[in-house]
Design a protein that fits this description.
Low-confidence stretches: none
Shape: globular
CATH topology: Rossmann fold
Strand content: 15-25%
Largest sheet: 8 strands, mixed
CATH class: Alpha Beta
Distance between the termini: 25 Å
Radius of gyration: 17 Å
Helix content: 25-40%
CATH architecture: 3-Layer(aba) Sandwich
Structural class: alpha/beta
């Protein structure tokens, strides 16, 4: 089996979503599925980094656009909520596993709202019989009311967001769901002006062992400092390799 990059189309609640599956030159590799931030896409920097880093280390990676984002169908304002993104994420996992190109061992990756999506999806995936080996979460909000700088102004991708967009779609508190998590690595910058670092401390407290919290000094929400990006790459790879190695040892 040669290393490959495959365009993937799948459906979530009637929306046609688009993604890219990165496969290493290993038969039935373990799989990481990524979820991007609120206004991100499958082209976000961390996901592009992981698509290369993981496949070079015999781990498959799937990145996709949630509904209303990137190349996927949907309207960002009408079709964005934590619940809808959770449904998209579960559909993505199910579809990739149905292709039978990877093992059944998966791990999660989420950045910002993508992290909240992973937290929200974890228990449901487990109830479906999907074995989750671990996760890496970056700057993830667990309480939406803690978010200090709401991105409501218009930008090149969308018009201005009305206040009711956040009131109707993005009010959540998923801290209680964090108790389902284990084998989780959490990154957060202590100078994050969007999602306060308090979210990371609360998430870490609720998650089960093994777990690790990396607070990046002077780190911002986007993890723009080179030193933080280097740390992210090194520690994330180490974490995923450890998670999958541990699971393989436990397999009869």
């Amino acid at each position: 089996m040669e290393k490959s990059i495959q365009d993937i189309n799948f459906v979530s609640q009637g929306f046609k979503l688009k993604g890219v599956l990165h496969l290493p030159n290993t038969e039935k590799p373990p799989l990481v599925v990524g979820s991007h931030g609120l206004e991100g896409s499958k082209e976000s920097a961390k996901q592009k980094i992981l698509s290369k880093l993981l496949t070079e280390n015999n781990i498959a990676f799937f990145r996709f656009d949630h509904r209303g984002c990137g190349e996927s169908q949907g309207n960002f304002i009408k079709d964005t909520s934590l619940e809808k993104r959770t449904v998209d994420y579960i559909a993505a996992v199910q579809h990739i596993l149905s292709l039978d190109k990877t093992s059944r061992d998966i791990a999660l990756f989420g950045s910002s709202m993508g992290g909240a999506t992973c937290i929200n999806a974890w228990e449901r995936l487990s109830f479906m019989g999907i074995r989750i080996c671990g996760a890496v979460l970056c700057a993830s909000p667990v309480k939406s009311r803690s978010i200090e700088n709401i991105p409501s102004d218009a930008n090149g991708k969308r018009p201005a967001l009305p206040l009711n967009f956040f009131q109707d779609n993005l009010l959540f508190n998923i801290l209680d769901k964090a108790s389902s998590l284990s084998n989780v690595l959490i990154f957060h910058g202590d100078a994050d002006k969007t999602v306060p670092v308090s979210n990371a401390y609360e998430l870490f407290t609720q998650a089960k062992e093994p777990k690790r919290l990396i607070i990046q000094k002077d780190g911002d929400h986007q993890m723009t400092a080179v030193k933080d990006q280097v740390e992210f790459e090194k520690e994330t790879l180490t974490w995923y390799l450890r998670c999958f190695k541990h699971t393989q040892k436990m397999t009869p």
